[in-house]
Amino acid sequence: MQIPTLFVILFAFFTAAFAAPVERRAAVAVFKTQTYNQLSISGGKAGTAQALASAKFAALNLANAKNVAASDLDFLNSVNQIANDAETEAFNPAIAAATGAAKTALQNGKIQNKVLKLTASVLKLQVQAAQGQNTASQLATEQKKLATNIALDKKAAGQAATKLSFNAST
Question: Which positions carry the signal peptide feature in this UniProt record (predicted)?
Fold first, then answer.
């Protein structure tokens, strides 16, 4: 019994097609360069920093964290760095020079800034963990800091919070 030539050709084609390595689609970045002032969640009233920070990073698809673009991890790291710089170079000196209600409002703004900074850090570590990196210890530390600052923000709910401008970008 002879196997028809068309069958052999089709068999070879489908065998090659299914045996070929699957090309992984490159992750598409969801974040673009932004200034600190565009990213800042400080100002207004204290108490909603967690929701405001989450909204800044809502485009990040944590359900598909394995495929988050490296440039988005860089963005999150950059947000952490510039928010940290704003804390040390803008908020801390302003708080040290202020008194009374102005000082409290600046402190509330600083806490909002810290929630933004730590949210970016936690998200970056969660994505890195999903991508196979061992971030468990660092993630636990950052989550604890974030929870502490969210609690401080909620405790001050309704109080004034001051937004400070800071010249930096991601």
Answer: 1-19
**DSSP, res 47:** S
Q: Retrieve residue 87's tokens.
A: 């804390």
Radius of gyration of the chain measured on its C-alpha atoms:
24
CB 152 within 8 A of CB 111: yes
115 contacts: CB under 8 Å, gap ≥ 6: 41, 49, 50, 52, 53, 146, 149, 150, 153
Give pTM, 2 decimals.
0.84
Q: Is residue 11 part of a domain?
A: no
pLDDT tens digits, residue range 43-82? 999 999 999 999 999 999 999 999 999 999 999 999 999 9
Number of other CB atoms surrounding residue 8 within 10 Å: 10
Residue 54, domain member (yes or no)? yes
- At 21, phi and psi to the nearest 5? -65, 145
DSSP state at residue 35: B
**How far is Cα 53 from Cα 149, in angstroms, rounded to an integer?**
12
Residue 19 lies in a domain: no
Q: Establish if 123 belongs to a structural domain.
A: yes
The structural domain count of the chain equals 1
